[in-house]
Amino acid sequence: MRLLNSLDRRGWLLLGAAALGVALFGAVATTGTTAHAGAALEERKLPMKFNWVACDPNCRGWVSAVGIITADTPRDFEEFSRGRQLGGATVVLDSSGGSVNDAITLGRRFRNLGLSTTVGISVQNRSGQSARPAVASEAYCESMCVFLLLAGKKRYVPEAAHVRVHQIWMGDRADDAKAASYSAQDLMIVERDIGRLAKYTFDMGGAGDLLSLALSVPPWEDLHELDAGELKLTNLVTTNLVADVLPHVDVTAPAVAELAPKTQARFGAEAEPQPVKSTKTAEAVVPTGTAPSAGSQK
Fold first, then answer.
1. 237 CB contacts (<8 Å, ≥6 apart)?
2. What pTM was estimated for this model as a whole?
3. Could you tell me where the DSSP H helices lie in 22-178?
4. Is 1 within 8 Å of 285 (Cβ atoms)?
5. Of 29, 44, 93, 296, whose CB neighbour count within 10 A is largest?
6. pLDDT tens-place string over residues 138-184
7. What whole-number distance in Å separates Cα of residue 296 and Cα of residue 195?
8. Residue 132: Cβ within 10 Å count
9. Distance between the two ends of the chain, CA-based, in angstroms?
């Protein structure tokens, strides 16, 4: 499975794509503070999943959001939220990003619900005969996940978490981005979608510094990890108190699996709209075991 080949067929904007080797942790209940790394890595390659982590009677609980943002993610969240009183709840994110426009849609939904956001991995700690939910703080929120983080009404980033940004690019020319040629249409697509992302950033209360930092990292360089000062500069952090987003929750649990190196995401070339999914944006390639059909959107 190759990200760039897929984007050649599908096109459209991608900020935060996950290719083979990108590691995201699945929201899996473990039997201790250490999970099976192999299973966790497989979970991280899948589309974003939402799980409710209950911790009654000590705390309200939270939403675990793990995986790649795809065209189905906003709909999956709506199905997950149906029948649940999520207003004011906290979303714990562990993601390498994904579809730009769908992440924007999801982020606006988060804000409408008044959700808080943070970065972490939901785990189950065993103590004697009982298990209690906890959050491992050494997790990753990259690319479009950073803009989901921004959607929180209250936003907290643990010291051990990794929040990383990078530039958008044309996915079908990412193998040798410096040598590739680009048309006026390509530039129009880039500028249009940067505009969409900029409007969303300001609507969510983010600073222009966030866009400036992200757009200064070309595809041939590693993602830029925001330090504590940059997290404040960009308005990604609104509180330094974990209790503001996860009261009565243990957030000192160790990470459950070693995180694999992250993959630089690309900006896909625009394609003709398809009748099934009309998100106007590319998505991360997900290992499904079957080859996608020509013209399908991922």
1. 155, 156, 157, 231
2. 0.74
3. 37-44, 73-81, 100-112, 144-150
4. yes
5. 93
6. 899 998 899 999 999 999 999 999 999 998 777 567 668 888 888 99
7. 26
8. 15
9. 12
